[in-house]
Hints:
Layout: H1 10-24, H2 34-37, E1 38-42, E2 47-50, E3 55-60, E4 66-70, E5 73-84, E6 93-100, E7 108-114, E8 123-129, E9 138-141, E10 151-157, E11 161-166, E12 169-175, E13 191-198, E14 218-232, H3 257-269, E15 271-274, H4 289-294
Antiparallel strand pairs: 1-4, 2-3, 3-14, 4-13, 5-10, 5-14, 6-7, 6-13, 7-8, 8-9, 9-15, 10-11, 11-12
Helix pairs in contact: 1-3
Amino acid sequence: MGPSCSSWILCLCFLSLISATLSALPNKPVDVPFARNYAPTWAFDHIKYFNGGSEINLMLDKYTGTGFQSKGSYLFGHFSMHIKMVPGDSAGTVTAFYLSSQNNEHDEIDFEFLGNRTGQPYILQTNVYTGGKGDKEHRIYLWFDPTKEYHTYSVLWNMYQIVFFVDDVPIRVFKNSKDLGVRFPFNQPMKVYSSLWNADDWATRGGLEKTDWSKAPFTASYKGFHIDGCEASVNAKFCSTQGKRWWDQKQFQDLTPAEYSRLQWVRQRYTIYNYCTDRARYPTAPPECKRDHDI
């Protein structure tokens, strides 16, 4: 674990820990144009392009949302997006950024940003599907307003762990627990997706808050379309460069002490739901939660 902080040096500690976290990851491009790695998937007229395609807006109205996907499929790597969420009254809307494989027993790694009524905080839900089964949700409040400026959301995925980052702060780790009989995404290449859509049957207060279509169109903004992964066909069972890329190296097989400190900070201050502690839903904790409790 990282160093503890007394209240009068909390800000200094926060900055030093963020610096340590940032230094652990390789330098990454921030202005990758959309068309290099991605293409629209539906409702093309609901995607608007700016600054030569380095920035886009997704729009949702009462007729349709929209989305896009990566041109390639990937088996492990680092994937990130700079996103500015729907501002104002966004209740009922979901902005999603996720990786998913292409078959029925699919693997999936999810960021889902659940809209709010004006003045209420956004909720960030993460989930992991393995072999077609999810139900591994975590939910947090963010420590900033995600509608005011761009923030970076990223996934590090290797044979050892899946790490969800917000502005390079780890908010969740899903460890490889195959030794406990838990499936882990390792042999199904995934495409990267993002979408803006209406989910007012569940997204805001369990569906109690409905989308106010008088506020439409709703807009989420994107830039920094970064992918650094092992590209593979959708039928590939292994990565040809496995063990040779930066994300496979020893320093990325676990969190650093500084990253564990930041993860604990998120858990203690901002986590509002963790399926591992939901005894009404899981009277006996799922086996991978043993590792979750060790974090």
